[in-house]
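Forum: Protein Structure Q&A
Topic: Joint prediction for protein chains with partners

I've read a bunch of threads here and the consensus seems to be that you should model interacting components together rather than docking separate models afterwards. I'd like to see that in practice. Below is the full input, 587 residues plus whatever partners are listed. Could one of the regulars post the assembled result?
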Amino acid sequence: MSDLSGLYQELILDHSKRRVGDGALEAPHASHHELNPTCGDEITLGIRLDASGTKVEALGWEGDGCSISMASASALTELVVGTDTAHVRELIDGFRAMLRSQGAGEPDEDLLGDAIAFHGVSKYVMRVKCAMLSWVALEACLIEAEARATQV
Amino acid sequence: MTLDSKQSAPAPSRGLDVAAIRRDFPYLAQELNGFPLAYLDSGATAQRPVAVLDAERAFLEHANAAVHRGASTLVGTSTTAFEDARATVARFVGAGEREIVWAENATDAINIVALGMADAAAGLGGPEADVFRLAAGDEIVVTEAEHHADLIPWQRLAAKTGATLRFVPVNDDGTWGIDDAASVIGPNTKLVAFAHVSNVTGHIAPVTDVVELAHRHGALVLLDACQSVPHRPTDFAALGVDFAAFSAHKMLGPNGIGVLYGREHLLDALPPARTGGSTITTVTMESAQFLPSPQRFEAGTQPVSQAVGLAEAVRYLERLDMQRVHEHEVELAELLVDEVSRIPGIRLVGSGAGVERGALASVDVPGVHAHDVGQFLDSRGIAVRVGHHCAQPLHRRLGLRATTRASAYVYTTADEVRRFTAALAEVRPFFGVTA
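Posted by a regular:
Agreed with the consensus. Here's the joint model:
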């Protein structure tokens, strides 16, 4: 097996085909479109919070991109739905830190769960943006959704 | 085919002694991910022979001084080298010395024309600049296949002047012909801009036919020659184009320098969009008179050692003989098309076998994104370009978002092409995509 198995972990290839959360979310509290201009990959991600405005009730996305970007959106959906927004922020920060590690250190499995499969991506500097695409969209959604919740 | 890590000796090519050429390029001797590097990305940027690196270094060690400024012996030496470089490039493309303007790159060269035309429309330049003045009702024509560098400057020019931007339609394979051009070029056309050789499809434009048609309607023609000048004998005067642009780094030369070609009387009439030192004759507090071409466009400090390096790249190509370079690339283009066409389920963009194309092939691997294709090839030591290759509208027209492009040059071997196609055949199985 080539070195590629470090990048294309089974879990990533599996997520790129299963695509958990694939499909536009109805009546989102916030949605955000994110584009990677170097390759044209894009994603539109929407979230809905619960009545208290502190928990992610539902998440959906539509996207077109490489296996890394699509698998990342799928893994993100599994991790985030049903958790509270403070934890989602921790996840985003932890995921970003892992992808900026350039392969160094051990990822925080307690926090990131299955998403540690993306640790190998951090060694491929040109692919980090692919893995971050949906997470950047999620971060923007969260800010918008919470701002909206506090206005009400 | 097996991918052992021993590089077999390049087979003799009809046109070139590739084994000897490769010895001039230290870059090519390295490994990539444990395999001998197969550099198939020369369409994006070419590597440089030792002769070019040495020429630039020798200039900097012995002859560097502020060109066209002052009167010292040193300035004389550097200015002579700088202007000799211009003469060398001019000879290479069938131009006069005053018809070669240094730019930062080909994109910048196109912008010099587009911005100068916008200045003309804004009232700058005398009556001689009338030919550049656009207004509502005038039309700028480009093809649907253009690189963004030959599209966005014209979008901006149209927005500034009220002119309309129109598009030569391309076929489903991304190619186009003179009939397609004739369906758009007409009496309102003021400028036609298109690529000589497409950086995505390798399609070779019918340049002289388009020039004849455009000139019949009184329109100017600008040729994006980035993928032709490095690869085939190119004579702008014989082609009849009014302007052309190309980049040094795609023809074995340095980064940071490109070339704008223009017919002398047009360059002398085009308002200089960037102004400043060295472009003028007389300056008062209120206004300035500009020198003729090329100095009127070369404001500020120029890329002097880069010009010297580019001239050395030209001499290197001349020693190889551009006709032989062309024959070598025709051979590799045929091999690329032939080998790619044999892989089941792979879509080759552009025309198929039997039609001459530039020595490049962009492919779509259904079910696998181009980034993933490129990553797989990279793990096998094969360097290609992935993405939209700065041609989003063309990819959209082809129903694609991104493709994987292999492009060849003087140092490319048939063995490297076969390594590319052999690895390409393994991509879908690796990603678990079935036909």
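The domain at 18-50+321-430 of chain B is CATH 3.90.1150.10 (Aspartate Aminotransferase, domain 1).
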